[in-house]
């Protein structure tokens, strides 16, 4: 504990802190423009200078750490004079007429006219007006005049990228955007260019951000103290009058967001600085997609029922009566329901309760069926194992070895990617297994560019190499060890190198790392589990993690997938799964389908009665007999469970649009209309009280704890049981042929919410994603005489789809890669692919194909 004095105030300081940090904690104002809590000290603007007894000159408080017995003065006349001069120098290259205008408090009536000017030459023209740090510092230092010649830098305002504009005429060279892009995001897209009076922020060769590889996370916009970086969708006149915290629904991490409102309408979403998962960071979807999602033109806002062959608007009571009367005509086995892992815990519980206790059917499943999380749990249950699933994202950065397989984590789980970058910066080794280069490849100590479909052989070979390197007594005592040794006898490292394309040297070197370094964490995604041999891949990775004494975690896909799985496990899985429901609908044995989540196109196999409960229109909507409009996450309360097992409270942000209602309200009212007891709920907290009683996983949940920001995790009853699971390599790598010489490597795109295709809805997201393209190696494209942007056709014995060619060096020779979405993008819809060629296994099959030029 150190004792210091700041402005005659005696302060005790614990740990290593800067003078500026301590002053802020104690409410002592020191101006600063380049400092930011999430960034390393920079000492650029010099506004935070202080006097320290016994030291000559002035020290920047943002980069000077406290020492015991230090005496600091922050507000002397000399300091104030110097700060004003420094700030005047900064203002001399920043439009400052409004900042020092004596009439600035009285110009409201003129602002609307002034704002017709296209260039921001004053505060009233700036999107940051009213929330600008430069304005705050000018006011705090009482600047009335700038005693230096004004220089307008006359930079072109850059509007050639999605989501935000760059007006470097408003830039004060604080360096925050440069530092956050490098230090936290690991992208280094922007940097300082030129020197001296010509210094500016820019990109290499003055490329656009998109051309430079920017993923538009918005971190630079969030740390910019002026209006130099401005979100395009937020108008200068739009100043928030309310801010509400909630949870982002667009991936499985559950980042905490602050939703800015004006007049009860959403303006923007920004990451909450103290969010337990994201710690002030977000991704492009959480930062820029929320408003467009909620106010999408595809929203369903009124109940619909089919009368005389046409869908017509109806009142809620009429719609409930219509559906209730029809549902009563069918037996439980004739009914199937599809829930959504993007609905909250309370809604998923009620949906399952409605199915099991009301409709008396066990035929209920969701799109979480294809998640690596589900694959892992199904595998563990089959093997009689009970692995621990709870973890904290922040702990990943403390690992010495991170083994990443089957996932482009900067796209699927960007916040986890930040922890991996932090770990690498702390000296950790990152090992990536992926046939294609991913964004984190440049941070990896080893990128194992494995041939598509040969992950299993690589994992088995690493296990064999670990055995040959040596083992601890602790490992040899784990049950199944001798069986594991025997199962690996036939694995040959030389043959492995030939099959996988990974050198023996890399395999041996990585095995040494895994033996010598701890802690080790293994993370895997859909790329490991989506193939027909996905369960074998999990077995091999499980054994490898046990040998390395590391932790193994699947990365979930959707925001409440973990919660939906825990609820489904409680109700049991005796009914049909997703694939079986698809087949039963096609055969006609399922006559009623109730869809609250995405489902393949029913164009060729519509059931007798189809109910859709959704927030957005879908390709199945025109076939529906009844449609219930559901609210989005922003219009309801409840809880989500993220991929860590963390249970988080969802806060209602706005009133429901149109006549939309929360899913829990719809189900409870429909159940009551059908005469079912036990569905008289008035708020989500009542449902959670029931969940706590019947589902052990939620036994530790308390709304009061969640509201206070306390950590609440899924309760795991069983202790983790560790046992090796022997596995012999039985299948060969995918074989191409003369007729089908290429390999199709499919991938899921996660840019959707409920039935809304975000890449199709939001222009900026559509620009930065590759879901419209088939990606081909340049040499293959040359051989086929295919040009960039040209239409092509890809076909196999069971599949024919059309697309557009993108020529890229990152794709292996002989491989074509495509991303697929749920929803209406018909040529690339996962739903269509399932119904067309993969009804028996919930996987996107990697398969031999041929390619030809299309129209």
Short structural description:
The chain has 855 residues and is α/β, with parallel strands linked by helices. Among the domains are: 242-294, N-terminal domain of TfIIb; 304-371 and 560-707, Rossmann fold; 387-554, Dimethylsulfoxide Reductase, domain 2 (3-Layer(aba) Sandwich), CATH 3.40.228.10; 742-853, Barwin-like endoglucanases.
Structure description:
- With 855 residues, the chain is of the alpha/beta class.
- Among the domains are: 242-294, ADC-like domains (N-terminal domain of TfIIb), CATH 2.20.25.90; 304-371 and 560-707, Rossmann fold (3-Layer(aba) Sandwich); 387-554, Dimethylsulfoxide Reductase, domain 2; 742-853, Beta Barrel (Barwin-like endoglucanases).
- It has 29 helices and 34 strands.
- The strands form 9 sheets. A 7-stranded mixed beta sheet has the order 14-13-24-23-22-15-16, sandwiched between helices. A 6-stranded mixed beta barrel has the order 27-33-30-32-31-34. Strands 2-1-5-3-4 form a 5-stranded mixed beta sheet, with helices on one face.
- A hairpin with a 4-residue loop joins strand 31 (791-795) and strand 32 (800-807).
- Helix 10 runs parallel beside helix 23.
- The termini are far apart.
- Residues 837-841 have low confidence and may be disordered.
């Amino acid at each position: 504990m150190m004792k210091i004095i700041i402005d005659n105030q005696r302060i005790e300081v614990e740990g290593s802190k800067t003078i500026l940090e301590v002053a802020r904690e104690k409410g002592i104002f020191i101006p600063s423009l380049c400092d930011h809590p999430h960034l390393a000290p920079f000492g650029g603007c010099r506004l935070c200078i202080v006097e320290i007894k016994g030291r000559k000159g002035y020290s920047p408080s943002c980069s000077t750490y406290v020492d015991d017995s230090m005496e600091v003065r922050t507000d002397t006349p000399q300091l104030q004079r110097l700060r004003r001069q420094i700030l005047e120098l900064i203002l001399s290259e920043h439009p400052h007429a409004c900042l020092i205008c004596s009439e600035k408090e009285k110009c409201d009536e003129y602002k609307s006219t002034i704002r017709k000017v296209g260039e921001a030459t004053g505060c009233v023209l700036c999107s940051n007006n009213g929330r600008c740090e430069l304005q705050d510092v000018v006011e705090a230092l009482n600047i009335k005049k700038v005693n230096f010649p004004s220089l307008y830098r006359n930079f072109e305002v850059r509007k050639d990228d999605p989501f935000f504009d760059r007006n470097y005429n408003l830039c004060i060279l604080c360096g925050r955007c440069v530092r956050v892009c490098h230090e936290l995001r690991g992208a280094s897209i922007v940097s300082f260019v030129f020197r001296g009076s010509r210094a500016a922020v820019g990109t290499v060769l003055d490329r656009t951000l998109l051309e430079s590889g920017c993923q538009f996370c918005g971190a630079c916009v969030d740390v910019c103290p002026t209006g130099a970086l401005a979100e395009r969708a937020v108008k200068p006149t739009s100043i928030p009058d309310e801010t509400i915290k909630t949870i982002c629904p667009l991936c499985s991490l559950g980042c905490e967001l602050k939703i800015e409102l004006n007049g009860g309408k959403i303006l923007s979403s920004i990451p909450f600085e103290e969010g337990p998962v994201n710690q002030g960071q977000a991704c492009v979807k959480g930062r820029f997609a929320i408003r467009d999602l909620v106010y999408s033109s595809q929203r369903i806002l009124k109940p619909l029922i089919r009368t005389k062959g046409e869908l017509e608007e109806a009142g809620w009571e009429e719609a409930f009566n219509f559906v209730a009367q029809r549902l009563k005509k069918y037996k439980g086995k004739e009914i199937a329901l599809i829930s959504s892992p993007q609905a909250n815990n309370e809604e998923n519980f009620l949906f399952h309760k409605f199915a099991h206790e009301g409709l008396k059917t066990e035929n209920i499943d969701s799109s979480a069926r294809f998640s690596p999380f589900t694959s892992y749990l199904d595998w563990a249950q089959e093997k009689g194992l009970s692995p621990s699933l709870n973890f904290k994202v922040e702990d990943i950065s403390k690992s010495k070895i991170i083994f990443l397989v089957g996932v482009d984590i900067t796209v699927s789980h960007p916040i986890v990617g930040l922890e991996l970058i932090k770990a690498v910066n702390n000296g950790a080794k990152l090992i990536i297994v992926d046939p294609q280069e991913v964004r984190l490849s440049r941070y990896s100590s080893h990128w194992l560019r494995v041939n598509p479909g040969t992950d299993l052989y690589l994992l088995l070979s690493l296990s064999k190499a670990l055995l040959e390197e040596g083992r601890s007594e602790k490992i040899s005592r784990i049950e199944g060890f001798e069986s594991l040794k025997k199962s690996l006898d036939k694995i040959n490292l030389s043959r492995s190198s030939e099959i996988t394309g990974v050198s023996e040297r890399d395999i041996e070197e990585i095995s040494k790392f895994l033996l010598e370094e701890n802690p080790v964490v293994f993370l895997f995604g859909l790329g490991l589990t989506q193939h027909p041999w996905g369960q074998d891949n999990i077995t091999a990775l499980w054994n490898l993690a046990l040998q390395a004494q590391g932790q193994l975690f699947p990365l979930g896909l959707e925001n409440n997938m973990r919660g939906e799985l825990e609820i489904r496990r409680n109700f049991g899985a005796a009914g049909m799964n997703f694939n079986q429901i698809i087949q039963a609908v096609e055969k006609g044995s399922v006559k009623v389908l109730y869809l609250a989540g995405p489902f393949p196109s029913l164009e060729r196999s519509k059931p007798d009665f189809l109910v859709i409960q959704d927030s957005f229109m879908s390709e199945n909507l025109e076939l529906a007999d009844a449609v219930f409009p559901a609210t989005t996450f922003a219009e309801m309360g409840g809880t989500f469970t993220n991929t860590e097992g963390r249970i988080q409270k969802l806060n209602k942000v706005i009133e429901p649009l149109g006549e939309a209602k929360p899913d829990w309200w719809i189900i409870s009212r429909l159940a009551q209309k059908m005469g079912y007891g036990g569905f008289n709920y008035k708020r989500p907290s009542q449902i959670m009280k029931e969940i706590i009683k019947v589902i052990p996983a939620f036994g530790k949940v308390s709304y009061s704890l969640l509201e206070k920001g306390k950590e609440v995790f899924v309760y795991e009853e069983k202790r983790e049981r560790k046992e090796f699971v022997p596995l012999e390599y039985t299948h060969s790598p995918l074989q191409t042929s003369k007729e089908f010489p290429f390999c199709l490597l499919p991938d899921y795109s996660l840019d959707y919410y409920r039935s809304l295709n975000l890449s199709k809805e939001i222009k900026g997201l559509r620009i930065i994603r590759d879901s419209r393209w088939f990606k081909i190696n340049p040499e293959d494209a040359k051989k086929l005489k295919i040009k960039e942007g040209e239409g092509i056709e890809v076909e196999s014995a069971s599949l024919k789809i059309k697309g557009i060619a993108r020529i890229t060096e990152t794709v292996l020779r002989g491989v074509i890669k495509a991303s697929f979405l749920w929803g209406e993008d018909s040529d690339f819809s996962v739903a269509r692919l399932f119904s067309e060629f993969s009804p028996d296994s919930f996987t996107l099959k990697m398969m031999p194909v041929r390619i030809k030029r299309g129209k």
